[in-house]
Design a protein that fits this description.
Blueprint lengths: L20 E5 L2 E6 L6 E6 L8 H12 L3 E5 L16 H7 L2 H17 L4 E7 L1 H11 L5 E5 L6 H5 L5 E8 L5 H12 L6 E10 L11 H21 L2
Helix pairs in contact: 3-4
């Protein structure tokens, strides 16, 4: 279900990271950054390591700098996956943190953002979070979706997506191998009513957009290219 790639290069969590702050949003501890003045919001749904990952918050701040109000909720209720806990490998941990529950929680956040006067919402999901975003895109609860190195996303999910979607995959990815991402592309190409963008990043591995080594210029450049693709998608459709 979840291979070792899901857990590689774990971040050192830092609750104080980022230029934004943590507040309660619809009952969820949420890292928020950016201004509500634009009435445009982006929901970032984390991978299994949760909302305190510094690179994830750095990405949220980058999206905020592009003119969006960004929310990164703690959908794991203070219990992100901890690779140091041998008693709770991913298959055990995920029983308490299924993607179905994540989707139900994300709908609450979307409603809360609308309640703040937001008129247009994009959602980006990383790994685990991509499956959550798939649900939002299938129900057309958002204006645009981005999946970054998705986990658990199926062909059937992609067949029923109703909003513009970008899928950024890695060449080295056991969770969503290039063959599967190409299938996603073929399905979306046959759906002219749904605009799509699908890209496979060569020499990149699952998790590369947020679990990169900040001291590795090549890894940083690969991550930043994906970030730019995501920002361009939201600029096009969340307005």
């Amino acid at each position: 279900m979840s291979g070792p790639q899901c857990c590689s290069n774990p971040p050192t969590l830092n609750p104080g990271s980022g230029v934004g702050h943590v507040e309660e949003l619809a009952g969820f501890k949420t890292y928020v950054t950016g201004s509500l003045d634009s009435k445009l919001a982006v929901l970032l749904v984390s991978d299994i390591f949760g909302y305190e990952a510094p690179n994830l918050r750095k990405l949220a701040d980058k999206v905020a700098a592009a003119g969006f109000y960004v929310a990164v909720p703690d959908f794991f209720y203070g219990d992100p996956y901890d690779p140091d806990r041998s008693d709770r490998p991913v298959p055990v941990w995920i029983k308490d943190h299924g993607v179905d529950k994540g989707f139900e929680d994300a709908k609450i956040i979307v409603d809360a953002l609308r309640g703040k006067g937001v008129s247009s919402i994009g959602a980006a999901g990383l790994c685990w979070g991509a499956k959550v975003v798939a649900g939002l895109a299938k129900d057309a609860l958002i204006q645009a979706a981005v999946m970054l190195h998705p986990s658990f996303v199926t062909v059937d999910d992609i067949k029923t997506v109703k909003v513009p979607i970008a899928i950024l995959g890695a060449e080295i990815d056991h969770m969503s191998p290039p063959e599967l991402v190409k299938q996603f592309d073929e399905i979306l190409s046959a759906k002219p009513e749904v605009d799509s963008f699908v890209k496979i990043f060569p020499k990149c591995a699952h998790g590369w957009t947020v679990r990169y080594n900040v001291d590795d210029p090549t890894a940083v450049a690969c991550a930043e290219e994906a970030h730019q693709n995501m920002l361009e998608w939201f600029a096009k459709y969340v307005k």
